[in-house]
Recover the amino acids of this structure.
C-alpha cells in the first residue's frame, strides 16, 4: 500500500515539474512582472528579429506580455554582478526596434543582472527610437564596411571589446 502512495506522489511531482518547465506563463519569475512569454531566445536555433525600414536586427532574451499593465516588455539578462553599460541599453533598444519591425510593438525594456534591474520606457514612435540608437548603428555599419572601428579615447574599453581584433585603437594601443 505504501508503494501506491509513493507512486501517486511521484506522478504529482512529475506533473508539477513538467508544467513549470514547459509553461509560457511566469509569475514572480521576474520580480514584479506577471504575464505570458510570447517570444524567447533559444540560442543559435532562434533567428534574430529584423526591421526592414531601419535595417537593424537583434534578439532579446524574452518578450513578455505584462498582464497588469497590458504592455509588451523586452527582457535582457546580463550575466554580471552589477552595472548596466550604454552598450547594454543600445543593444536592447536595437532589438526592440527589430521586434517592432516584426510586428511586436515593445513599449519597455527591462535589463536584469545579478543585483539590479533597470526599466526603460521606449518612445512610442519608431523614428524617435531609431534616433536614440542611430549614432551606434552608424558606427557598426562603418566598422562592417571598413573592417575596423573608429578610434576611441576610452582605452579601458578596448580590453573587453568583442571587436578589438578589427579596431585601429586597440592595434595602436598595443604598439
Amino acid at each position: 500500500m505504501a508503494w501506491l502512495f509513493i507512486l501517486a506522489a511521484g506522478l504529482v511531482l512529475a506533473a508539477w515539474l513538467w508544467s513549470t518547465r514547459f509553461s509560457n506563463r511566469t509569475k514572480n519569475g521576474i520580480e514584479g512582472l506577471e504575464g505570458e512569454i510570447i517570444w524567447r531566445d533559444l540560442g543559435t536555433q532562434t533567428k534574430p528579429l529584423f526591421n526592414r525600414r531601419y535595417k537593424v536586427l537583434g534578439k532579446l532574451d524574452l518578450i513578455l506580455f505584462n498582464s497588469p499593465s497590458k504592455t509588451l516588455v523586452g527582457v535582457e539578462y546580463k550575466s554580471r554582478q552589477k552595472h548596466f553599460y550604454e552598450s547594454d541599453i543600445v543593444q536592447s533598444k536595437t532589438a526592440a526596434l527589430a521586434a517592432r519591425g516584426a510586428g511586436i510593438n515593445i513599449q519597455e525594456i527591462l535589463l536584469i543582472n545579478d543585483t539590479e534591474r533597470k526599466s526603460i520606457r521606449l518612445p512610442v514612435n519608431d523614428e524617435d527610437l531609431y534616433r536614440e540608437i542611430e549614432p551606434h548603428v552608424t558606427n557598426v555599419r562603418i566598422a562592417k564596411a571598413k573592417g575596423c572601428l573608429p578610434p576611441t579615447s576610452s582605452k579601458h574599453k578596448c580590453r573587453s571589446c568583442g571587436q578589438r581584433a578589427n579596431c585601429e585603437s586597440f592595434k595602436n594601443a598595443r604598439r
Observations:
- The first strand starts at residue 25 and ends at 30.
